[in-house]
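We both want to read discrete structure tokens more fluently, so let's practise on a single case. Would you write everything just below, so we can both look at the same thing?
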Amino acid sequence: MSVEVKAPMPGKILEVLVKVGDQVKEDDEVIMLEAMKMENPIYAPADGTVQEIKVKANDSVETDQLMIVIG
């Protein structure tokens, strides 16, 4: 079963901290998102393997935009 990591708010991707194939644990930081002039870490919602990354540094994202798929 796949778990989607979506943007909690509009902002800009500062850094993607994982790559496809990486193993992540629940609550690992996977993306650093800048929103409202603050850095907001985005955490993995579950244990798994990064299957897809839909964003890259400097991308702008909207609320609920798919960023990462963890399987």
The CA atoms of residues 24 and 48 lie 5 Å apart.
